[in-house]
């Protein structure tokens, strides 16, 4: 296991090996399918996005409401395949990593390899534990989406497993 800090670059992504466990720290962004759809609609209209996609990590999470006195709610991963219609375009525009759970399509795998990126999985069912890794949370866009709004998170030692490495090796195969 090794500790890694964002932003993740092409050079860093090329060092990951499928099945490797890492602890990720730094800035990541939350976004699920509704947010992905809006981002792509904004791109279609040539509108500026709420964040720069270069070398960012997107976490497919719909957090529970934040309890009083806490920074963030439960932060378990959601099923990644729901973002597969949008993910290749975002990888092509600079996203270097996504975090979720489950299998990804061939199109996503191809986008990952073409862009020297990576797909991580987080442990499903461990949302309360993962939420404790969030040290700061800031709403960035789409507040009306509630739990699906885009948030900028600062995380510390978020435990992840490499599920698709930049060479296209897939954990689920």
TrEMBL record:
EC top class named in words: lyase
Alphabetical UniProt keywords: Lyase
Positions of the Fe-S hydro-lyase tartrate dehydratase beta-type catalytic domain: 6-172
UniProt EC number: 4.2.1.2
GO molecular function: fumarate hydratase activity
Family per similarity comment: Belongs to the class-I fumarase family.
Full protein name: Fumarate hydratase subunit beta
Organism this protein belongs to: Breznakia pachnodae
């Amino acid at each position: 296991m090794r500790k890694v800090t964002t932003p993740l670059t092409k050079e860093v992504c090329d060092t990951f090996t499928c099945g490797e466990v890492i602890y990720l720290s730094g800035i990541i962004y939350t976004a699920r399918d509704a947010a992905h759809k809006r981002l792509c609609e904004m791109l279609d209209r040539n509108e500026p996005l709420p964040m720069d996609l270069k070398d960012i990590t997107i976490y497919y999470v719909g957090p529970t409401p934040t309890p009083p006195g806490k920074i963030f709610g439960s932060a378990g991963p959601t099923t990644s395949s729901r973002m597969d219609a949008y993910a290749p375009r975002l990888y092509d525009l600079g996203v270097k990593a996504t975090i979720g759970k489950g299998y990804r399509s061939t199109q996503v795998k191809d986008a990952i390899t073409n862009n020297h990126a990576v797909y991580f999985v987080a442990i499903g069912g461990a949302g309360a534990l993962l939420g404790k890794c969030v040290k700061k949370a800031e709403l960035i866009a789409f507040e009306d989406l509630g739990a699906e709004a885009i948030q900028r998170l600062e995380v510390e030692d978020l435990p992840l497993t490499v599920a698709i490495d930049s060479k296209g090796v897939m954990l689920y195969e």
